[in-house]
Amino acid sequence: MTEAKVNFNFEEAKVGQKQVAVTNTYARTLIHLELVLLNGYFGEVRDFDGIAASADGVINIDSDREIGTSQINTSDTFVVGNPVYFLPATTVAGKLRSASATGNAPVGIVTSINNGVSVTFKPFAQRTSDVGIVVAV
Q1: Which tens digit of pLDDT belongs to each residue from 56-107?
Q2: Average model confidence (pLDDT) for the chain?
Q3: Nearest CA to 98 among 78, 123, 75?
Q4: Cα dihedral 16, 70, 57, 123 sign
Q5: pLDDT at 116 (0 to 100)
Q6: Which has the closest alpha carbon to 7: 39, 40, 52, 48?
Q7: Among 20, 127, 4, 123, which residue's Cα sits nearest to residue 67?
Q8: Which of 119, 124, 123, 68 lies closest to 98 in space, CA to CA?
Q9: CA 72 to chain centre
Q10: At residue 120, what are phi and psi to the nearest 5 degrees?
């Protein structure tokens, strides 16, 4: 397992190559390995210098891995096997949450917990193109 101590104690079991270009719509710089929800995609910032406000950057959306992070709401009770949700924030880093609420999105399934300090989860798969989508008009 690879651990990056840059921020949030982020670690992943497998580095994937499923990355998408996004535009930072927040009024702050997003930092390297911060989990974000941007342009309809959930993943971590891959740019080493982060992504400045209104700038373009890259996030990793690979679902063939497990992500461990302390970027959580520490007062939530996470349960192995339950969904994990992401609540974005504009002025600070968003947080993973243990329950669905207004404004958050389901992003994966909890695979392990560390006493309210961190959580490990398997992200849900995300569509990277509109190929194969059928739209009824």
Answers
A1: 999 999 999 999 999 999 999 999 999 999 999 988 999 999 999 999 999 9
A2: 87
A3: 78
A4: positive
A5: 81
A6: 48
A7: 123
A8: 119
A9: 11
A10: -115, 135
Q: Read off the tokens for 24.
A: 């930072």
Beta strands in 1-137 (DSSP E): 2-3, 11-12, 19-23, 35-38, 41-45, 56-60, 67-69, 83-87, 95-97, 105-114, 118-123
Residue 26: both structure tokens together: 């927040």
Alpha-carbon separation of residue 73 from 62, 80, 81, 85, 117 (angstroms): 23, 16, 18, 10, 9
The rounded distance, in Å, linking the Cα atoms of 130 and 69 is: 30
CB neighbourhood size of 32 (10 A): 18
What is the C-alpha separation between 82 and 2, in angstroms, rounded? 24
Residue with tokens 């209104």: 54
